Amino acid sequence: MSENTPAYKDIKLLPSVVFEGETLPQAIDARLAAHKIPAFSIAVIRKGEIVWTQAWGNQSSNGAKVACDTLFQAGSLAKPVTVFAAFRMQQKKLINFDHNIEQYLQRYHLPSGAQAESNPITFRNIFTHRSGIIAGGYEGYPNGSAIPTDVQTLSGLPPSNAPKLEIVAPPNTQLRYSGAGYTVAEIALQDRFEKEFDPLMQEWLLKPFGMKQASFAQPIPPKFYPQIARGHDGQGKMIPGGWHNHPEQAAAGLWATPSDMATFLIEIHRAYQQKSKLISKASMTEFLADTQDRHSYGFRRLGEEPAIFFTHNGGTRGYRAGMTINLESGDGLVYMSNSDAGANLGLEFLAAIARTEQWSIFRETTVKRRLISPDELVKFAGQYEFKEQGWKIQVLFENNGLAILFPNGDRYPLSSIVGEHFSFIHADTGVRASFMLSDAGTTIALYGQTGLKIESSSPTQ
To answer: What is the pLDDT of residue 230?
Structure first.
């Protein structure tokens, strides 16, 4: 633990959703056990300095205790690290974010698609997720198994488990997550500098920023194995091989500690304050100006002026991570976990630190339960179609309650709460759903979208 941390000595956590008159604060170890999370590590930032680092738990169920220098997979936190390395390259006029990326590609060339000579794919629209490229989120490859080259990944060739890259929308017209776009950028940077990705990132960002433990090496060398927290599923079971390797390094291939990622955020804060020797004012101006739907180069902007927190999350098989920074005040937090359930505890930590530091956002959601009879609940069970968005969910009636089953297999048990129509909440994530009965049918409001029930379900006990 860092010094000067009296405010955190006896910190207690609440679930993301607090039920009036029911929920009591709990110790951190109790919340780890509740979520079946083997290990959790954090770094708290105040006024541009790391003021608290601590780690709880074990590398695996029978493994060594974790420490603040234990390595976790950072998942998509790799993306902004790649972006700011590229900003530094552009500062030296070695690349240009607005040039056709084909100018830099040698080993691979983009297939024909919705791009045009007058509207090409560039570093900028890749980094802002507006390239029109689809494919990736990447699943990774169990440790010890064969991994593909970047070209095999983009081409959908064995041993890749990713689909072939496609360009389905004109660049700069849609905000749409694209891990494959970052893999294109990864190839372009390696071809431009004639260097492998990890040493390239070490040279341009990790070492200059002081991210001492961080590495893009894939697969990670055995010398690092003693420092690695093994990945686990949401039930606390270690994934085969301990982790998946991610040859898609720019998109998901970073190993790091919370202190590494906090150091990265602090340098961005310093650049915002025009005190950085590494990130220029021009680069920060570009970063801040290029915003769509409150997204900036993959960061989400949460809150309102002057308390806007730039937030980014990451997840790979068996790991979850998140980071946030208020560029104005220099306050922030990084968490990393070796569990698919780690984001739930991350939200609880964010809320606890927000309370302690008196941040204006990231607070718990307080709700009041509403009792609804099983006979009423069963009416909502069935399949719902979100026609405009092209997806469906199942609402299950089980154990005298409702649960949402998503297409990816995620299951969200719902709690009935006081609210408009028939309102429900998922206690772990705070995701809300509400049902409405009308002559036109039964609908569900979820994530700001409306789904229509197209098929009823039989009760499941």
So the answer is: 98
